[in-house]
Amino acid sequence: MELTLLGTGAPAGLPRHGCPCAACATAVGDEARAATALLVDGALLLDLTPGAAFAAARAGYSLTGVVQVLLSHPHAGPAVEFPAGLPAPGRVPDGRELALISGHRVRAVPLDSPGTGYEVTGPDSTRLLYLPPGAAPAGLTAPAEPYDMVLLDVLGRPSALAQLRATGAVGPTTDVLAVHLDHTVPPGPELHRRLAAAGARAVPDGETVVVGEYHAVPDLPRRTLVLGGARSGKSVEAERRLAALPDVLYVATGGTREEDPDWAERVAAHRERRPASWRTAETRDLPPLLAQEGGPLLIDCLSLWLTDAMDSVGAWDDDTWAQGGRSALHERVEALVAAVRATPRTVVAVSNEVGSGVVPATASGRRFRDELGRLNAAFAAECEQVLLVVAGQALPLRG
């Protein structure tokens, strides 16, 4: 099957008309996107959006060969135009299959939100799945046969991609294309970086792709360290990198602190951000988790792990530190680093970058800063990707 993306943007398009935001101001050229509409082999049109006929003409296609127009959006979707000569738009009832004279078969996929998803099988037996904005399939069961291509709202609904991966509907060879792109994510390099972190890609409006054809998408790094200062957005960045993966275990190293309302508020904010499907483990015993087979780990954070490790070896007392505390701590760090080196799991770890701040006034404070710097450097050496987050912006240091 050949698929021409007449538009790849959100229903309001990108840039949004009259919107003064920075993302809309910079959405020019290939980063400008009309509302998402797909032309399959010149015969099937998925979503009839404003300007579809002109978009097809710009891409070198005509809509005169279209035999079926199907809508995916709920009633609040984009305005519909009816170019002369096109079949009247319709919608396939959930679970029903439609056979077209072009040789394509279309099955309506039930969703967990208003709208209709479509599974399209071409005459060559390749299969694609198209989902409307903010939607995920409902009632998926494993194991599922992987699609050749999936088009969905990757950044607006990453849990949908995680669900498809969990059932096997998205496999290692599935080409994942992001559509319904909105101004909530900056265009340009940042957009493509976030998509690559989810194992997906975006193409400009008007591009034609071949379903089932191999496209190189950056492999998801197996080990990532996310560094940043206080309130830099490092935890949000770490969570974002695993949002499209299933079976994530969130490893909270901070534990609980009785009679500390500020700490309770921080913990609650983290929990509210995380997908409901994620599991949580409150532990500082990291090597056993790293040694186990299983889903991805998000470790937040190494600085709290180090605080507990220094507590346990008496590192805050100068005499204890000099008489064995230093070597005991370094043994713990070496064991953690060795576990990261050997882990079979996908790991994203968060840590504080404290080397650029004010020099601590106490010897114990300087000791913690120095040991955290050494831990970060040793952990980073075992990671395929290292990021530094500054003011919410992720700067790649490696990978």
Task: Please summarize what this structure is.
This protein is of the alpha/beta class and 399 residues long.
Folded structure, characterized:
The chain has 399 residues and is an alpha/beta fold. Helix content is 28%, strand content 20%. The chain has helices at residues 22-25, 52-58, 158-167, 189-197, 234-242, 261-273, 286-291, 302-312, 318-342, 363-380, and strands spanning 2-7, 37-40, 44-46, 68-70, 97-99, 105-109, 117-121, 127-130, 149-152, 175-178, 208-210, 223-228, 249-252, 279-282, 297-300, 347-352, 385-390, 393-398. The strands form 3 sheets. Strands 14-13-15-16-12-17-18 form a 7-stranded mixed β-sheet, sandwiched between helices. The protein has a 6-stranded mixed β-sheet with strand order 5-6-7-8-9-10, with no helix packed on it. A 5-stranded mixed β-sheet has the order 4-3-2-1-11. The two termini are 34 Å apart.
In terms of DSSP E residues, the strand content is 15-25%
Main pleated sheet = 7 strands, mixed
Distance between the termini: 34 Å
Q: Approximately how much helix is present in the residues?
A: 25-40%
Mean pLDDT: 90
Radius of gyration: 25 Å
Number of helices: 10
Overall number of strands: 18
Give the uncertain stretches in residue-range form: none
Tags for this entry?
18 strands, alpha/beta, 20% strand, 399 residues
